[in-house]
């Protein structure tokens, strides 16, 4: 079984989070950590602590899609598990992924149904443990790699947000199968894969990219008119709130809505997803 699975983790300033994730992984599977910096100390520390881990330093912040694609390009096994650094596996998580994979040979993706250790998501679909769905969340995705030969992996135009939904939609357009399995447990903190010291800058980045990705995703799949309709309320709200928070001298809120507006405008006019968190990395 160890020859069939490689685990791929895309990290960015995640030193405070990664140990909980890595220590939850079985040691008989190769792990590829793609660190979006030049942090040699990070690489040395985790490769010395976890003998099954290879850490690739990108030298720059590639984002979720491109970072995971880099990791997946190094995979030689039949299956891969894409995992966020703030996720932890349950005791039998990998075993249960394989049980389901052996039941359904032609699946493309399997995701866990229990998705958050604070508020576990309940999948309401009768008494079925295995549910076919249109999409799964990107923090834990079990890939049957041969199913991706004709569509590739993540669209690298996305930096963060909606890239996994885009991938799932492209799979479903090809009539490929995606499943949630209620037996599979992956604990996910959510929105906490980086160190706390950079929280506000990451909040600005999240707001910029969420708006950029929302318009780009809808334009890609549903056309310009539908994309403009979808984001019109968000555009209006961002303008109004930007003016309001500027008028009451709330600098942080003003910056957040300025970034939301900037992300939307850049996406509408066809600019690439260029914004990067303003963080000094080693």
Topology:
Elements lengths: L4 E7 L6 H6 L6 E6 L4 H10 L3 E5 L5 H11 L5 E5 L3 E3 L3 H11 L3 E8 L15 E3 L7 E5 L18 H11 L3 E12 L10 H24 L1 H24 L3 H18 L14
Helix pairs in contact: 6-7, 6-8, 7-8
Sequence stretches where pLDDT stays below 50 over 5 or more residues: 117-123
CATH architecture type of the largest domain: Alpha-Beta Complex
Count of the domains: 2
CATH domain fold name of the largest domain: Spore Coat Polysaccharide Biosynthesis Protein SpsA, Chain A
CATH class of the largest domain: Alpha Beta
Radius of gyration: 19 Å
Order of helices and strands: EHEHEHEEHEEEHEHHH
Question: By helix and strand content, what is the structural category?
Answer: alpha/beta
Can you summarize the main beta sheet?
9 strands, mixed
Query: Based on DSSP secondary structure assignment, what is the total number of beta strands?
Result: 9
What's the CATH H-level homologous superfamily of the largest domain?
Spore Coat Polysaccharide Biosynthesis Protein SpsA, Chain A
DSSP strand content: 15-25%
Please work out how many helical segments DSSP would assign: 8
First-to-last CA distance: 37 Å
- Rounded mean pLDDT is 90
How would you portray this structure in words?
This protein folds into two domains: 5-188, Spore Coat Polysaccharide Biosynthesis Protein SpsA, Chain A, CATH 3.90.550; 196-268, no CATH class. It has 282 residues and is of the alpha/beta class. The chain has eight helices and nine strands. Strands 1, 2, 3, 4, 5, 6, 7, 8 and 9 form a nine-stranded mixed beta sheet that branches. Helix 6 runs parallel beside helix 8 and helix 7 runs antiparallel to helix 8.
């Amino acid at each position: 079984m160890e020859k069939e699975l490689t685990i791929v983790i895309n990290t960015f300033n995640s030193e405070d989070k990664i140990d909980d994730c890595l220590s939850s992984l079985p040691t008989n599977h190769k792990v590829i950590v793609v660190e979006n910096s030049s942090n040699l100390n990070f690489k040395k520390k985790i490769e010395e602590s976890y003998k099954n881990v290879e850490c690739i330093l990108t030298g720059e912040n590639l984002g979720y899609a491109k970072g995971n694609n880099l990791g997946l390009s190094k995979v030689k096994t039949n299956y891969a598990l894409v995992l966020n650094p703030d996720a932890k596996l349950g005791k039998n998580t990998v075993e249960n992924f394989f049980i389901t994979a052996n039941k359904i040979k032609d699946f493309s993706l399997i995701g866990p149904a229990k998705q958050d250790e604070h508020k576990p998501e309940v999948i309401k679909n009768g008494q079925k443990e295995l549910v076919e769905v249109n999409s799964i969340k990107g923090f834990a995705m079990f890939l049957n790699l041969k199913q991706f030969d004709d569509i590739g992996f993540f669209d690298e135009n996305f930096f963060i947000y909606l890239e996994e939904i885009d991938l799932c939609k492209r799979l479903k357009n090809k009539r490929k199968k995606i499943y949630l399995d209620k037996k599979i447990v992956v604990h996910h903190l959510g929105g906490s894969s980086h160190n706390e010291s950079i929280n506000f800058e990451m909040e600005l980045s999240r707001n910029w990219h969420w708006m950029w990705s929302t318009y780009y995703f809808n334009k890609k799949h549903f056309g310009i008119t539908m994309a403009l309709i979808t984001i019109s309320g968000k555009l209006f709200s961002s303008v109004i709130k930007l003016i309001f928070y500027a008028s009451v001298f709330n600098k942080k809120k003003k910056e957040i809505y300025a970034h939301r507006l900037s992300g939307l405008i850049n996406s509408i006019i066809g600019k690439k997803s260029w914004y990067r968190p303003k963080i000094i990395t080693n």
